[in-house]
Design goal:
The complex is a heterodimer. By secondary structure, chain A is an alpha+beta fold. Chain A is 75% helix and 8% strand. Chain A is built from eleven helices and four strands. Chain A is elongated. Chain A starts with a helix and ends with a helix. Chain B is an alpha/beta fold. In chain B, the strands form two sheets. A six-stranded mixed β-sheet of chain B has the order 6-7-8-3-9-10, sandwiched between helices. Chain B has a four-stranded antiparallel β-sheet with strand order 2-1-4-5, covered by helices on one side. In chain B, α3 packs parallel to α5, α4 crosses α5 and α5 runs parallel beside α6. Classes of the chains: A alpha+beta, B alpha/beta.
Chain lengths: 294, 226
């Protein structure tokens, strides 16, 4: 009986207010999709950062005319350096092989690069990566050294671009989310007005507060959850159309790992659903409690 | 059953109080008329008894519940012990007579088998047996008020509040409604009726409390309209 009443309230509320319900679902979906892409980026960048920083290396590139003696001397100095954790040597051939592997999706780039163009180098892991400047200073002037590069410096701009996109997505998401919240509030007020006779009677005869409010809260919840589901669909669509399609080259060039379905469905999708559910239910309740004064 | 101690109600936009230092006590099973012209405070009085609005000052106790100590979520419990009818009946136009009456039980969580059993009984009591499946617009004003009374009484409340219940009815119909209220009163239900219908008050000879500008100016057992 109760379930029946509640469900009929929800469905009739949504049907009676079809244009508003669609507006809620769409705004919620758009804002959550933006928020979702922001979240995916955050998770992605976090993963990337840990991965990169874990194997972050200082590369000491050697000049083309380096002699074997200089090479041996440098290796010995590095191996005895208290700052250094480990040293590996990468020859020109190895560097080229790694380059080809890394850019196998961009054959033009690979074909236009001669196998000898890439310098040989020592890859140095520091005990404390933040001591980079000290290490760089030490070896920059050594014989046979062309340049010392900290990989974190290369990644820095990339991370800041991603950070900017993230921030923008989240900022737009918040603005649209505010619109969604206002729409939900408004719809609840209209729905409550449509059912004002029933509400008046229910209150007069002593129906409990949750009994009066539940259909409205559930109505908002259903609309919000539908919006979240649509947002996840938008993210999947976005992944297929952009991340896997037109923009996939960019991902490869920037050396960013591809976005997988896993990135969307866990933990972002449940997070979006939770946000939508909590936000719509709370908005509905607050509207009923303080504006409609049920 | 109903007790008001020095109750004053001020509305924000009005300088004159709607109720001014009202003290009144209504015994269980009593039948009381609250009379007075429009704006004398009758409707405010009824609304306060339903705890729709808090008093500005003073204490209200209805059915053993002190309003100042009654939290928001316990108000529904209070209202279950109070039945209510109004001048405009307040029936749901898209529900049948039986559904309108059953609605009051349904929304407080009474099981269907109770509703099916109790609703015909109360419709019989108010003289509407055989009209259970009519829609409100198919009924006369008097019949609609009977439905409203049936709905107010179906949960056997301790108190029945009636705000101008005969205000929209012709004199003959009004008397029928009064007979019904009298019958409900005889079951032990306390009846409080706000009205400005002199004929009815005079014909019933019950306790009369007269309000004027929010003050009690007369409280008379077996009184007349004055």
């Amino acid at each position: 009986m109760r379930v029946n009443y509640v469900l009929s309230g929800v469905t009739s509320g949504l049907r009676r207010n079809i244009s508003m319900s669609v507006a809620i679902v769409l705004t919620t979906a758009i804002s959550l999709a933006l928020l979702g892409s922001g979240l995916i980026l955050i998770h992605k960048v976090d993963k990337m950062k840990t991965a990169f920083y874990f194997r972050v290396e200082v590369s000491i590139y050697l000049t083309d005319r380096v002699t074997q003696a200089q090479r041996d001397d440098l290796r010995q100095r590095l191996e005895q350096d208290p700052l250094v954790k480990s040293v590996t040597y990468e020859s020109k051939a190895e560097a080229y092989k790694r380059f080809r592997e890394q850019f196998k999706d961009s054959p033009d780039l690979v074909n236009n690069t001669s196998p000898t163009a890439l310098p040989e180098s020592f890859r140095v892991k520091l005990k404390d990566p933040s001591k980079y400047a000290l290490a760089a200073e030490k070896y920059k002037a050594a014989n046979g050294v062309y340049d010392v590069i900290d990989q974190r410096k290369i990644l820095g701009p990339l991370f800041s671009i991603i950070g900017g996109i993230q921030l923008m997505a989240v900022a737009i998401a918040v603005v649209v989310l505010i619109a969604a919240v206002l729409l939900i509030g408004n719809t609840i007020q209209v729905a409550a007005f449509n059912r004002r006779r029933e509400i008046e009677i229910m209150k007069l005869v002593g129906a409990s507060n949750w009994y009066v409010q539940l259909p409205f809260v559930l109505e908002a919840l259903v609309a919000g959850a539908t919006g979240a589901a649509l947002a996840v669909a938008m993210l999947v669509g976005g992944k297929v159309a952009f991340a896997d399609g037109k923009l996939s080259r960019l991902f490869t060039l920037a050396n960013v790992p591809k976005i997988s379905y896993g990135d969307i469905f866990w933990p972002v999708a449940p997070q979006l659903l939770l946000i939508a559910a909590a936000l719509s239910a709370v908005t509905a309740w607050v509207t009923l409690r303080f504006y409609v004064r049920l | 059953m109903i007790r008001l101690d020095n109750v004053t109600k001020l509305y924000a936009k009005s300088s004159r109080p709607a109720l001014d230092d009202v003290t009144v006590f209504v015994e269980k099973g009593e039948f009381v008329f609250f009379i007075g012209s429009s704006g004398s405070g009758k409707s405010t009085f009824i609304r306060m008894l339903l705890k729709e609005e808090p008093p500005t000052r003073g204490r209200i106790v209805v059915a053993g519940r002190d309003f100042s100590k009654l939290s928001r979520w316990k108000v529904p419990q209070l209202r279950r012990s109070i039945g209510c009818v109004f001048q405009d009946f307040k029936l749901l136009p898209n529900k049948t007579v039986a559904e309108n009456v059953g609605y009051a039980l349904e929304v407080i969580g009474k099981p269907q088998h109770t509703i099916v059993k109790v609703v015909p009984e109360v419709l019989d009591l108010v003289g509407l047996d055989g009209k259970a499946n009519r829609m409100p617009h198919e009924l006369s004003g008097g019949e609609q008020q009977r439905v409203a009374l049936a709905r107010a009484f179906v949960n056997r409340p301790l108190v029945l509040l009636a705000d101008e219940p005969t205000g929209n009815l012709d004199p003959d119909t009004s008397i029928e409604i009064m007979r019904l209220l009298d019958r409900i009163n005889r079951t032990g239900t306390t009846v409080v009726m706000a009205t400005h219908d002199a004929t009815i008050v005079n014909s019933m000879r019950r306790r009369v409390v007269e309000l004027d500008n929010g003050r009690i100016v007369r409280d008379q057992a077996r009184g007349v309209y004055g």
